[in-house]
Each structure stands twice: as structure tokens, then as C-alpha cells.
Amino acid sequence: MPRVPAVLVFALLFAACGSGTSASPAGTATPEAPLAPPSGILVRLAVEPVATGLNSPVAVATAAGDDRIFIAEKPGSIRVVAGGRLLDRPYFDLGHLIEDAGLEQGLVGLAFHPEFAQNGRVFVSFTNRSGDTRIMEYRQDAADPDRIDHGTGRLILAVDQPHEYHNGGTLRFGPDGYLWIGLGDGGGVGDPWRNGQNPYSLLGAVLRIDVDAARPYAIPADNPFADGAAGAPEVWAYGLRNPWMLTFPDDDHVIIADVGHELWEEVDVAAITDGGGNYGWPVMEGPDCFEATTCDMSGLRQAELLVAHQRSCAIVGGPVYRGQAIPELAGRYLYADFCVGWIRSAQWDGTGLVPGEELSRDFGEVGQITALAEDPDGEVLILTLAGDIYRLVAERS
After folding, report:
1. Among residues 51, 122, 129, 131, which one has the least CA distance to residue 92?
2. pLDDT tens for residues 264-292?
3. Which residue, 28, 84, 318, 354, has most beta carbons within 10 Å?
4. How far is CA 241 from CA 8, 55, 69, 161, 293, in A?
């Protein structure tokens, strides 16, 4: 497919560019520092189209051993790119079950079981006609691998949503084999229901469940509140505003991109074995007390990476690059902004993120970025609200 020269992006920078990702002390939020000029062009990056004409694509999933790209469209369809072509017939259509009138409603999560090749199990997250979150399991049609069998639907988890915003809904199978779910605080300015600070609430939290050991699911024995005494057994972490995307950079850690309020976007990092963390919302927004001069920060986890709102509105977390086509990106966590359209990277060093590099000054010609994802080869896909999907590529002479 042709590359898009109009959106050539700046070089990958190994020196930090002052992209506004360093933390500031509580109560002293500072503007983003201006970008330093490129210190050395190592590779030029561009995008090439993968699929066009989609209806608000918001998530991509792949299955082990399968070379297809599965795309979740917000109104409820799952589309497939196979052999470099977008298939006309949807893999699945859940539109009759879904409410997608709100910007953050609709089909928002898609994940394939780690043993999908053997069991055909597919998991979806969506807001139903009442605006509540539903996690469902389906099976691929045994007679038609290009379709899901509608009759196999099974409810995994139901969560009431008090508002159309901050629904979250991302799904990921972790390296531990468990299903991880990110759910927002339920909406409303400043979390009026205080879900973020309630470990018994499934909202404002990252959940972790075992969909293999029991029906509809079992609680992993090492979940921090597995016995239900201090929090909901499903909850792995809480104090989050809208954890739109989860990433597993290796077998031992999880990266949580949490959409902020009016000052900060944040990225949190934790070891998978270190569950039970309280990430502060709405006591704090990023490094600052939320709408207060002082607050009690004792026991609250601090963000790994911060982005101020001077050039952002909603963080879109992406993958840690594992592809082969752009070795200069190896081991870099990519993240973007929904409104402005930039893409940045931070080096994953095995325990945390080293921020600084901005891969693009502006992806405005591409449009609003809803997700960064991986294709079956580990190359980076860029999803846009306008309905286009691009692949990040290197421009080499």
C-alpha cells in the first residue's frame, strides 16, 4: 500500500526532548516544556494505510497463530483485515445489543483467548442498551472461521454504569493467562460517586479474573482482595479515572494509561504481583491534589509518566514495540493523544519508563487517534475516529 508523505513524522530521538512528562511536586503543576530540536535523525517515520472506511474503530486484537487483524467498531461490528484486505462481511455484529450514542459508549473491548486456535473463544466489552457495561464470551463458528456463532454468547460480567462517560472497557489477556479489564470511574465531574476510592467498587479500577477455572469466572488466588475482606475480589488496582488502555511490556509488569481530568494525563506501571495499589483519583489528579490546596497522599501510588494538558486532552496508551521493521523503536512504549494527534515514546527499561522522545510533532492530517495497537507481526497500528487505520513504517532510502 502507498505510504502517506503528508504525515511524515520527525526522527526518533534518543536524547530527551522535554516533552512534559517529568513529574512535578504536588500542588505545583507546570506547563509542558517546549520541544528541543532534533539532535540526530536516525530514522524517518511515515504511515501507510491498512484499512479505510471503517465506522469509528476503537480497538484491534489479534490471536496467536492467526495472521488476521480484528477491528472493533464502536457501533458494534468486528471487522477483519485478511491478506491485506478489509473483508466486506463482518466477523461479528453486536449492534442490536449496544448503546453507542455517547463518545465513550459502544463496543470498546476485544480480546482472544490465549488458546483461541484450539477453543475459538472471543471476549468483548460493550455498553448495552441501558448504558451498562457487559463482558461477554462468544465462540468462533466451527463451520465458518470468518464468523462468530451468535448462539454461543455467554455473560461473563455485568457492571452498572451511572453515566455515559468514563466507561473504560478495555480487555487484555495478561501473560498470567487471566483476563484484565479496565473500567472508568462511572463519569460525572470529579467522580461524584467516589468509585475511584472505593476498593469494593468495580468502577475506577483494573479487574483481573480467571475465565478458565469456573463459569462465569473464578478469582485468582493472588488477587489483592481475593477474600473480599478489604475490597471486591475482582479488583486488582483502584483509584483510577478512566484506564482506557492496558499494556503488558513483559511477563512481569502492566502499564496503565489513565485518562485525566483538566490538568494531567498519566501512565502508571506496576509489577503484576504488586496488586492492590491505590492510584489516587479523585484525591489526586496526576501529581496534584484534585481541586484542593492540600490532601492526604499517604499510601497513594505516584504516576510513572505525566503529560500536561497544554498539548493534550486524553492519553491513548499503546504497545511496547516488538516488531522487526523499525529496530530503532525496539523496547519503546508508544502513546498518543486523542485530540492533538501527537505520538510519543518512552523507553521500557525492564522496571519502568524513561520518557522524552516525541515521534511526531502533529498527526493532524491522520485525525483523532482512538488507539495504538499491534498487528500480528508486532508492527504498530494507528486507529482514527474518522475510520482509517494506518501502520507506522520507516522511510529508508
Report:
1. 122
2. 999 999 999 999 999 999 999 999 999 99
3. 318
4. 33, 26, 29, 14, 20
The boundaries of the domain holding residue 238 are: 4-395
Mean pLDDT of the chain: 88
Grid cell, residue 311, equals 498539548
List the one residue out of 254, 202, 211 whose CA is nearest residue 233. Answer: 202
Q: DSSP assignment, residue 371?
A: E
- DSSP per residue, 236-253: EEE--S-EEEEE-SSSSE
pLDDT above 50 (res 244): yes
CA-to-CA distance for 341 and 364, rounded, in angstroms? Answer: 6
Pairwise CA distance, residues 176 & 170, whole Å = 17
In sequence order, the 6+-apart residues with CB closer than 8 A to the CB of 284 are 26, 290, 295, 297, 300
Among 314, 321, 305, CA closest to 381: 321
| CB-count burial class (<10 Å; 0-12, 13-18, 19+) for 313 | middle
C-alpha grid cell for residue 130? 441501558
Average pLDDT over residues 302-324: 92
Pair 254, 248: CB distance under 8 Å: yes
Count CB atoms within 10 A of the CB of residue 20.
Answer: 25
- For residue 131, the one-letter residue type is G
Task: Assess whether pLDDT exceeds 50 at residue 15.
Answer: no
- Looking at the chain, how many residues does it have? 397
Q: What are the residues whose beta carbons fall under 8 Å from the beta carbon of 97, sequence distance 6 or more?
A: 76, 126, 128, 129, 134
Sole residue written with cell 492530517: 365
Is the pLDDT higher at 343 or at 147?
A: 147
Query: Which residue(s) pair with 336 in the sheet?
Result: 316, 343
- CATH code of the domain covering residue 101: 2.120.10.30
Residue 295 sits at φ, ψ, to 5 deg, of: -160, 165
First to last CA, the chain: 17
Could you give the CA distance from residue 269 to residue 113 in angstroms, rounded to a whole number?
24
Beta-carbon contacts of residue 103 (< 8 Å; ≥ 6 apart): 164, 165
Dist CA 228 CA 239 (whole Å)? 17
- The DSSP H or E segment spanning 196 is none
The amino acid present at 321, given as its one-letter code, is: Y
